[in-house]
Amino acid sequence: MRSVPWSRLSWCWIGLFCWAACSTGLSARSSENFARPESPGTLAKSPPKRLALLVGIDDYSAASPTPDISKPPTRNLRNLEGAVRDVRALERLLVEAQGFRPEDVRVLTDRQATHSAILAAIESDLVERIRPGDLALFYYSGHGSQVANSLSDEPDKLDETIVPADSRFGAHDITDKELRKRFNQLLDHGALLTVILDSCHSGSGAREGLLTASVPRGVDPDLRDIRDGSPAGPRPEDRGAVVLTATQDSGSAWESVDEQKRARGAFSLALERALRDRLPDEPASFTFARARARLQAEQRYQEPSISGKKEAVNRPLFGLPGPEATPREPGLAVERTNPDGMIELQGGIALGLTVGSRLRLEGSDVKLEVVKLKGFSRCEARRLPGSEAARRVPDPKPGTLAKVVQWAAAPGPPLKVWLSDGEGLPESAALTHRLAKLAPQWGVHWLIDPTETPPSHVLRRNRIGWELVGSKTGLQELGPNPRAETVLDRVGRDGRLFVQLPAPPDLLRWIRVGPGTPNDGVESVDRPEGADYLLIGRLRETSVEYAWIRPDGATDERLRSPNPARTAWQPFVGNHQPGDRDAAENLEDRLLRLLKIRAWQQLAGPSGGEFDYELELRRVGSSSPVADGSRLIDRQHYQFVLRPRPDASDLPTVSRYIYIFTIDSVGDSTLLFPLNGSENRFPIRDEEVPAAIVLPQTMTIYPPFGQDTYILLTSEESIPNPRILEFSGVRSRGPKGATGLEELLAQIGGTSRQEASTRTTVAWSIERRYFVSAPTPASPHLP
User: Fold this and answer.
1) How far is CA 445 from CA 190, 254, 485, 492, in A?
2) Confidence class for position 353, pLDDT limits 50, 70, 90
3) CA of 781: how far to CAs of 584, 704, 775, in Å?
4) Cα first-last separation, the chain
5) Do 547 and 594 meet the contact criterion of CB atoms below 8 Å apart?
6) Residue 145: beta bridge partners?
7) What tens digit of pLDDT does each residue of 64-80 get?
8) Catalytic residue numbers?
9) pLDDT at 255 over 50
10) How far apart are CA 222 and CA 206, in angstroms?
11) Which residues contact 431 (CB under 8 A, 6 or more apart)?
12) Percentage with pLDDT > 70 across the chain
């Protein structure tokens, strides 16, 4: 617990949504400013362009086998499923919401994306077309790796690479040195450069945690020595480029699934969602922080990175210089009124709209309600009954602007869980007993908790038998009755084996999840690869115990992910033994707590609800902020500070009510500010953005230790009962007579997905920051 208490910096100002520049007539008017001659006879200056090359490779067996280079070594080169979908989603987002013209976006996928084709496209579509002041974007989604280079200046003599589609047929990878040369040519032309790489440079896929068959975006190094000692040139990020990568050099990037259960790159999906949430003038560092927070909040822990000079990361990710800025307050333009009375508007997901959001037409009291989202940049609304004067207003003409006046909170995505097949527990336990007995003789390490020590192999049952998942070997089917010796032989000496036991039918029947149950906010999935949590059984001496486990919840990651690595282990005997029903209810209750925690991590605020301050932590007595990723130490005292955001408006700041609370590593929430009736409206007066505001309250760090989430909630209306922000279980009803915002906050993480959205004012925001609370070095309670 925190004593008036605490997360890792994500600066997740969720609820501030990007404005699709192509969705209103305002962006067209701002573009005209570039083209209007200053005086008769003066030629108009061409506006800066945005150029993009997007490369995505799923199928590494489809390229022409022209290259040979005497056959490459075996590299564990597996096909992917989400890279091409990543490219298509980004292509659409660039054109519909980021100001790119369709003809300026070049796409290469699968067999098109060969070694020579990628390099040629960089030359023809970026280098040869670029002009000073233009923006160039290079995006790659696919496998990454390394290549041997005895002349490299890298200490390990391995250069980082991206893997082209014809790699399987002998083509060399494209090295970072080859890319650097071409990126520097773009910078030589005076271009703004953004590079986004959704791949990794580790072929091991050695994620720490409970192994599933999820696919890493990396393959084993190509050990053919390229002997390239030519100068690489300066790093583009040192010359003004912004480079985003899905993971650190030594880490792994993974595939995930989107809301439609389609494969996607985990980082690309998080970045796409962050781009939807961003403000038009938001710094690239903020957008990256949103993506990083979303990535880690959804149990796909990997550590992305951003690099670039301060002035580069402080400009918008796809921004151009010049008078092209769009207003901070989003608006929608009426496109047409249909014969059935429905009004179509230019504005959809990109503006953060939800079904149920309410709008007001400019110059009148006519209100509309959004009834359908028609893609990324369109929606359909119906006219609401109003006053007599409003009813006399004719249907709006095309181009009429509408403003969001009430935002509707749509139901969040369900928590996805995997429940193992309930058959065969006695046979499974018998095989597990024998494996545990023989493992030492085979030199295999026997594991009883995959969140304490990451396994190299996981043995589990499916509907037709057993399967073994290895960190390097992937999934192997073993049939219905494998011998223990066969399993141990495949694991190999020094391997780390965890056996996950299936749940008995009684337990599966008593845990209520999915449609038709009181807990339809939780969804059961068919395969563990698509789950947020897995119901896992283990053999503990002579008893079987069950817990909900996050697939990537290993030792180091449990200190960094805001979602618990696992719940407590719960004994369950089966066959209607005393205490089993209570055990099932405990497991269900813990699952619903996970739902609530995840819901708070993903809650997005309304478009236009941004506040001009962000949350900062300082150690008492220090004027320096706690750095990103730093630990908050046991028994030390910290204070909260509101500091102006770098992109804060020059207009006077409207005061907000400030609320700060924390969700700790075991899922308990504690209100930190305000307490005991203290004043919580800041700035005290509506004024221009003042210097940092030190809140009149401190906190002290206490156990439990681990990853904690600090949440800053701001609103122009007060929350009469801020204690609704504290919880240790599940709550689904707000206090009687609550405001719209208070009712919404009380419902967060409710067990059932609400059919009717809760409407709130648009003037509220939410920000999350993440820190690791930790014991002092001398403490015996190390996490």
Assistant:
1) 57, 26, 14, 10
2) confident
3) 30, 10, 7
4) 15
5) no
6) 161
7) 667 666 666 667 788 88
8) 143, 200
9) yes
10) 18
11) 466, 482, 484, 499
12) 77
